[in-house]
Amino acid sequence: MTISSAKRDAFAFLDRNAQALATLSDSIFYFGELGLQEYETAGLMCSHLEEAGFRVQRGLSGFETAFLATFGDEGPTIALHTEYDANPENSQASGVAERAEITPGAPGHCEGHNVNGAVLVASAIAIKKAMEAHGLKGRLKVFGAPAEEQILSRPYFVRDGHFDDVDAAFHNHIAGEFKAIHGVTHVALISAIFRFHGESVHASTAPWRGRDALDAVMMMDAGMAQHREHMRPEMRAHRVVLEGGHQPNVIPARASLWWYFRDPTAEGVRALFEKARRVAEGAALMTNTQLEVETLSAVWPVRANETLAHVLQANIEAIGMPAWNAEEQALARKLQEAAQVEAVGLLDAPTPLRGPSPQRAPSNDCGDISWKTPMGRLSFPATAPNLPFHHWSAGAPLATSIAHKGALAGAKALAGAMIDLFEKPTLIEDARRTFAREIGDVRYAPLLPADQKAPAAMNREGMERFRPAMRAHYVKQRAPFV
Question: Domain end: 264, 299, 334, which one?
Fold first, then answer.
């Protein structure tokens, strides 16, 4: 493909700032913050964007660690969005091919959302500078989305109208490959807490006076276990018990479960959720308890637009795979062997764009965006192929040169694709035509309740427990983008 002068300047900016990109990625890695507690992470990302001249709105849709950074006032509006949260008990030393916690028991990055966040910031700044230098008309909206691991924030952004004016959107995510995809790739999900309220009493002296909320939890769990026989193979329902009492001699007055329900379609997941609600109502009836249901999040399947996939793929092939050295290849193979997956090392070429991707079982909270506007999804090669996310082995490459090289390639591909759209608005028109064909007669409406508020306290206690010890490992220097 022909590289325009605007893209050459953006790529040159990213090359000059490769160290700033790596330092930002490493800083987020060592922050290791759980969803909705990404205060250090969001603060650092916002400071870089503000220094670059973006208008930054913090606390988007009631999420304290969400943000929207905006540049430009007229022309097509293109959005960029990604996540930057870590996972519980995923603390892992970087560059070490065995289980080695940085802070014992602490959260950490074992999927690579630290690199996602850094790529988002670097590419956004590069795009802005290219737009200014070359007089490109348009508006750039950069969304920071907390708590993806809880499948949480982006349905709120869409419900609250933040994507109403967006002509096209892009999502970047770390991978072991360098590729673009199109088709429906993830499933719909509803996340909900079922709380049962009873009455406590001494469990030995007068149990007949009590109403056991834990019994209701167990009855709901048993009812859903029986219902699984009648679920289609592609459906999923999984849960954890959040509260089940304090000691055996006190009948629990409160007990709760947190459920995830999944289905390939929005309609299917809504039906599964309503079935679960009826099971919970039955459990409350049988135990003489009261039921309260809170829908934390509800997301549509993720789909990726074919036109935007071709735009991304052209940039991927022009940029090419990073040049890996022998040390990087050796680390990748050691990690693959330790994780008991195929030890292919690091790939030496981008993955070709193929037909529609198969729909897989995971969910991502960007799904609603992809039914609201055409969305391109970039996978960039900043980790070793085949490593299972949320496993310690997937954390080991994330603050090494593997992640740094892959992040630079990903930032270039993302910046290049978005500059293509600003330079050639007909690509946006093409994307919207294919989008209309792809969604057919489906009409998007949020699954998320209109009055649901952001659950701001989630993960606070767990993060506060470990943050003091984790601070000792924070990256001390701050590298500005210049």
Answer: 299
